[in-house]
Amino acid sequence: MNAKNRKTLTAISQEPIRSEFYWKEIEYLFKALGAEVTEGSGSRVRVALNGVRAVFHRPHPQNITEKAALKSVRRFLTTAGVK
């Protein structure tokens, strides 16, 4: 995991949650952690990490992720054992 991925992980973990976060940064973080990321139907993205699976919706038409989705990402990472 490079410095940019560590910075993304730290930003996701902080309170209050940042309001503007690019989805690509989150996908790069998943891949850097060794997660299996696959495309679902429509804007769905399936992620599997350390035996934990989740489905997220890629934001559109803009690439900015909302706070509620970031909370879901945070919960997924915590459940998968990422600190």
Write up what this structure looks like:
With 83 residues, this protein is α+β, with helices and mostly antiparallel strands. It has one domain: Metal Transport, Frataxin, Chain A (2-Layer Sandwich), CATH 3.30.920. The protein is 41% helix and 24% strand. The protein has a three-stranded antiparallel β-sheet with strand order 2-3-4, with helices on one face. The protein has a two-stranded antiparallel sheet with strand order 1-5. Strand 3 (44-49) and strand 4 (52-57) form a beta hairpin. It is globular. It starts with a helix and ends with a helix.
Compact summary:
With 83 residues, this protein is α+β, with helices and mostly antiparallel strands. The chain has 3 helices and 5 strands; from the N terminus they run αβαββββα.
